[in-house]
């Protein structure tokens, strides 16, 4: 595919003189700055670019129109339909969901329609640059709607007998509603000389080209000369026009015969100059019989070649099959002499009519709506088996890969937005090849603005079994809380991240804070550690020590004493905390009630001996030894008496 | 359309050599020939200078942010042969660790993927590469050196993403071992892949193709299972894309031969677009089409374009 290179200029003097370089920042941002590659051989001296001019860095971002608030609804609602499509195809075979897919396609279109209506509403109040922008969006989405509708007719809908004309007319009527609107206004005015209306004949011919014969007749009736024989004859002729009703072979043949008879009849009337007194009526008659010259005369009434095409086919090839559409389209383009002047929309429509799906997809990538259209349409075409059938024609082509590449790109675009990222995830989830890896790369990069958002991101990561992502985010949050001095919060995150060393580090902080000010913080958290504490020995110790405090405070001295002994016997006491535990033992040893057995007391005495060099213990050591000795005496007496 | 969303006046008095945003894109660090490193807050589009870090005595070539799970550490390397790791405390950065074991200018610093721990690779003009690992238990840094990695000098280093090997040694529930790898480019015109093997670093592959100094190498983030992609650029005006399924057999594709020296290559976050900057004062963006062919992209709908000055 030919791609046109867009050039963007960085308005900076230094960049111009020195050169530039770029690095990627986020999903859709690029950082650009002046650059001079210095060589090791260059002297370590100020560069040639030392100056007073500021050295700036420029952050560039592609403009995503989908991020405009007015298009938010389109993004969200189409995501709903997209998911419905994916759910639809999970359990069914293609034959079953063809009809459903057609309905989905119409839902997509009604979302576009609603979006256009919103844009129109806002346009009336907008001013200046904003107005221009909205106008631009309207142009884009009108094209999208128009192409989607045609693609729906040709590639998604099932057309009985491949007779494409009625759908084609419906498409034209929908996208050129002007004539119908004008006709309605004129007829409603109940005027008797309608031809004085400046759009009168325009509307008559417009309706004629759209195959609305009844409206043409209705419009001719309020003409001031309607009683004139020529007018009456025209009305008669038009009333007698055969209509193709059935789709089977016999009814088509029958229709063709009727049609031939009717046109021959009209032609003989034209030849007999029965209409020549009224040039407009004469033209109508010559058009309906398909006279080349008449169709050249009418060209100026057509806004687009496809409007011409639909009218011309209605009167000359009413039973054309869809696969013949391409050749007629080309013929119309030649007749309208617009071959050298085809705009983007024209090219896409022609490609669709030629059933060149590849070309359609290639062209619609350039619609500047950031891949919304190509992603949704190619997904729909893929599920309608329209893309898979191309695999036979094109070597190395994978329909699935093509679909995924568009969905992936669209999803990635949405991932770059601060609140649309969950929508992006929904799309990436339906990329079976690379979706999960892309999520793993992008999800942790979403800035964590607040706790609610952080938790949401973690939930999404868990849903997809991205445990590494969960751990990384929790650890980062823990570090952040720590930096802010909120140790309890940090511990909470550390536990979620399952990071042993980090948890130990924080548990140490708790214990050291306790040494400093005699208080254990975040009691709620410590109280509810449960099995979480198993992540690190230091945390187990902290948890147990907290439990000891609780027991002591609620005067459950016996249990407190037991816990203290089991802690002393364990191997998880931090060096710096030994003396605290030993000092804690003193009041328990001195308690009125006997709390420690002789064995327990030996344990305490043994520990005290081992740790007697601890400087912090120095002035308490004697008291500890004395208490222990007294308690031992009590315990031995008690044990001797109760043996 | 592409628009400039931010234009940051750094206030550096001389050429900026590197500008990096942190993991979430909220802070920007810059380094310059004026020997300083600056940190800016760029949240919500307003730039505020947070700190001006002075510690180097020569041009500072490159900077790197650590993953936030290690706190926002910043590493810088300089012509003064030193690597400094800075740590933030209440919006001020202080030297956390200084590494001065290179005999010449240090050109490149890169933190390893966070899965591996807090590890920094440094490439120097003394032809060696250092790998500094932080040990949480002892709160100390351990340095390993790859001597003679590139004759005349190493210009750039880049870490491989942490991918678990397809047929790892993990049996049952055991988590397969992650393998640490990095790629380097140097003045010997070579691109080399290094792998950690026990407590040593060994040369795993030597990629020969460039005919002049290799200026930058960038290992792409991994999307798609177990496919490795590296971009290298050189003074021979070429950018080469290296791909491999096993890290042993590498396949090369010349992305393009440019009109001038190519200085830098940078992968987008998910590795689908490569930004190439060269002496022709142009930055071009490249992606791979569905047939796997690399192409310069300019698709307005995708909003990517050539940036020219």
Automatic annotation (TrEMBL), chain A:
Superkingdom of source: Eukaryota
Chief subcellular location: nucleus
GO cellular component: nuclear membrane; nuclear pore outer ring
Entry GO MF terms: structural constituent of nuclear pore
Keywords: Membrane, mRNA transport, Nuclear pore complex, Nucleus, Protein transport, Translocation, Transport
Compartments it resides in: Nucleus, Nuclear pore complex
Keyword set includes Transferase: no
Protein's GO biological process: mRNA export from nucleus; positive regulation of DNA-templated transcription; protein import into nucleus
Keyword Repressor among UniProt keywords: no
PANTHER family in the cross-refs: FROUNT PROTEIN-RELATED, NUCLEAR PORE COMPLEX PROTEIN NUP85
Stated role: Functions as a component of the nuclear pore complex (NPC).
Known partners and oligomeric status: Component of the nuclear pore complex (NPC).
Family per similarity comment: Belongs to the nucleoporin Nup85 family.
Protein name: Nuclear pore complex protein Nup85
Species whose genome carries this gene: Acanthoscelides obtectus
Biological classification of the source: Eukaryota, Metazoa, Ecdysozoa, Arthropoda, Hexapoda
TrEMBL record, chain B:
GO cellular component annotations of the record: COPII vesicle coat; lysosome; nuclear pore outer ring
Magnesium keyword on record: no
WD repeat coordinates: 9-50, 53-87, 207-242, 255-287
Gene3D superfamilies the UniProt entry points to: YVTN repeat-like/Quinoprotein amine dehydrogenase
Molecular function, one GO term: structural molecule activity
Keywords: Lysosome, mRNA transport, Nuclear pore complex, Nucleus, Protein transport, Repeat, Translocation, Transport, WD repeat
Chief place of localization: other
Keyword Transport attributed: yes
Gene Ontology biological process terms, A to Z: COPII-coated vesicle budding; mRNA transport; positive regulation of TOR signaling; protein exit from endoplasmic reticulum; protein import into nucleus
Subcellular location: Lysosome; Nucleus, Nuclear pore complex
SUPFAM superfamilies the UniProt entry points to: WD40 repeat-like
Family recorded in the similarity comment: Belongs to the WD repeat SEC13 family.
Identification of the protein by name: Protein SEC13 homolog
Annotated source species: Acanthoscelides obtectus
């Amino acid at each position: 595919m030919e791609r046109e290179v867009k050039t963007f200029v960085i308005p900076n003097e230094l960049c111009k003189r020195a050169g530039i370089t770029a690095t990627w920042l986020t999903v859709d941002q690029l950082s650009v700055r002046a650059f001079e590659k210095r060589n090791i051989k260059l002297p370590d001296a100020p560069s040639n670019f030392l100056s007073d001019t500021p050295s700036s860095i420029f952050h560039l971002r592609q403009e995503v129109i989908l991020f405009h608030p007015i298009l938010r609804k389109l993004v969200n609602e189409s995501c709903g339909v997209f998911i419905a499509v994916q759910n639809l195809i999970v359990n069914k075979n293609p034959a079953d969901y063809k009809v459903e897919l057609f309905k989905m396609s119409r839902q997509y279109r009604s979302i576009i329609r609603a979006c256009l209506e919103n844009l129109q509403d806002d346009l009336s109040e907008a001013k200046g640059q904003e107005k221009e922008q909205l106008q631009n969006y309207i142009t884009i989405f009108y094209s999208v709607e128009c192409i989607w509708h045609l693609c729906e007719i040709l590639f998604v809908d099932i057309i009985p007998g491949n007779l494409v004309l009625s759908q084609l007319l419906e498409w034209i009527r929908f996208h050129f509603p002007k004539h119908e609107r004008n006709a309605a206004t004129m007829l409603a005015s109940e005027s008797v000389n309608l031809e004085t209306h400046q759009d009168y004949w325009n509307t008559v011919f417009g309706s004629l080209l759209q195959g609305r014969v009844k409206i043409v007749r209705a419009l001719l009736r309020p003409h001031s000369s309607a009683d004139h024989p020529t007018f009456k004859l025209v009305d008669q002729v038009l009333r007698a026009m055969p209509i193709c009703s059935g789709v089977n072979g016999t009814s088509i043949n029958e229709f063709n015969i009727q049609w031939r008879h009717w046109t021959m009849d009209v032609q003989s009337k034209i030849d007999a100059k029965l209409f020549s007194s009224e040039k407009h009526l004469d033209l109508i008659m010559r058009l309906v019989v398909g006279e080349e010259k008449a169709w050249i005369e009418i060209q100026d009434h057509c806004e687009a070649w496809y409007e011409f095409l639909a009218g011309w086919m209605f009167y000359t090839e009413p039973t054309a099959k869809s696969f013949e559409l391409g050749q007629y389209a080309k013929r119309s383009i030649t007749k309208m002499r617009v071959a050298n002047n085809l705009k983007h929309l024209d090219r896409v429509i022609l490609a669709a009519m030629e059933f060149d799906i590849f070309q359609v997809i290639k062209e619609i990538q350039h619609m500047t709506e950031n891949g919304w259209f190509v992603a949704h349409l190619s997904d729909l075409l893929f599920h309608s088996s329209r893309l898979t059938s191309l695999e036979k024609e094109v070597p190395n082509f994978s329909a699935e890969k093509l679909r995924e590449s568009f969905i992936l790109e669209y999803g990635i675009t949405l991932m770059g937005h601060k609140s649309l990222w969950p929508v992006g995830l929904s799309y990436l989830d339906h990329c079976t090849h690379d979706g999960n890896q892309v999520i793993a790369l992008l999800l942790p990069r979403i800035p964590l603005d607040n706790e609610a958002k952080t938790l949401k991101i973690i939930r999404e990561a868990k849903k997809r079994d991205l445990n590494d992502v969960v751990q990384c985010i929790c650890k980062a949050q823990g570090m952040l809380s720590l930096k802010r001095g909120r140790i309890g919060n940090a511990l909470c995150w550390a536990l979620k991240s399952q990071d042993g060393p980090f948890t130990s580090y924080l548990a140490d902080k708790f214990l050291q804070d306790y040494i400093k000010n005699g208080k254990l913080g975040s009691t709620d958290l410590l109280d509810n550690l449960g099995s979480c504490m198993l992540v690190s020995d230091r945390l187990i110790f902290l948890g147990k020590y907290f439990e000891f405090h609780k027991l002591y405070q609620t005067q459950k001295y016996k249990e407190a004493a037991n816990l203290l002994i089991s802690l002393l016997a364990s191997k998880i006491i931090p060096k710096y905390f030994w003396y605290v535990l030993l000092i804690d033992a003193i009041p328990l040893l001195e308690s009125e009630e006997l709390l420690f057995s002789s064995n327990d007391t030996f344990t305490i005495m043994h520990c005290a001996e081992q740790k007697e060099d601890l400087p912090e213990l120095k002035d308490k050591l004697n008291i500890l030894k004395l208490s222990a000795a007294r308690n031992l005496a009590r315990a031995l007496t008690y044990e001797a008496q109760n043996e | 359309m592409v628009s400039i969303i931010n234009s940051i006046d750094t206030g550096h008095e001389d050429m900026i050599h590197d500008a990096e945003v942190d993991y979430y894109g909220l802070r920007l660090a810059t380094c310059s020939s004026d020997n300083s490193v600056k940190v800016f807050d760029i949240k919500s589009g307003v730039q505020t200078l947070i700190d001006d870090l002075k510690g180097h005595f020569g041009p500072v070539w490159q900077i790197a942010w650590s993953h936030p799970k290690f706190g926002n550490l910043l590493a810088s390397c300089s012509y003064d042969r030193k690597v400094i790791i800075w740590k933030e405390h209440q919006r001020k950065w202080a030297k956390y660790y200084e590494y001065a074991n290179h005999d010449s200018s240090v050109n490149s610093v890169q933190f390893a993927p966070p899965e591996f721990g807090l590890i920094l690779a440094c490439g120097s003009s003394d032809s060696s590469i250092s790998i500094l690992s932080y040990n949480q238990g002892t709160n100390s840094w351990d340095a390993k050196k790859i001597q003679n990695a590139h004759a005349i000098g190493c210009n750039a280093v880049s870490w491989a993403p942490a991918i678990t090997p397809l047929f790892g040694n993990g049996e049952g529930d055991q988590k397969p071992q992650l393998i640490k790898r990095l790629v380097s480019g140097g003045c010997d015109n070579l691109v080399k892949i290094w792998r950690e093997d026990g407590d040593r670093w060994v040369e795993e592959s030597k990629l020969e193709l460039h005919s002049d100094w290799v200026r930058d190498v960038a290992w792409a983030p991994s999307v798609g299972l177990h496919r490795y992609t590296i971009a290298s650029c050189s003074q021979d005006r070429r950018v080469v894309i290296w791909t491999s399924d096993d890290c042993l057999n590498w396949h090369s594709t010349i992305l393009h031969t440019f009109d001038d020296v190519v200085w830098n290559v940078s992968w987008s976050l998910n590795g689908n677009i490569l930004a190439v900057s060269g002496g022709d004062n142009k930055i071009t963006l490249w992606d791979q089409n569905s047939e796997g062919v690399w192409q310069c992209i300019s698709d307005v709908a995708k909003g990517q374009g050539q940036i020219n000055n």
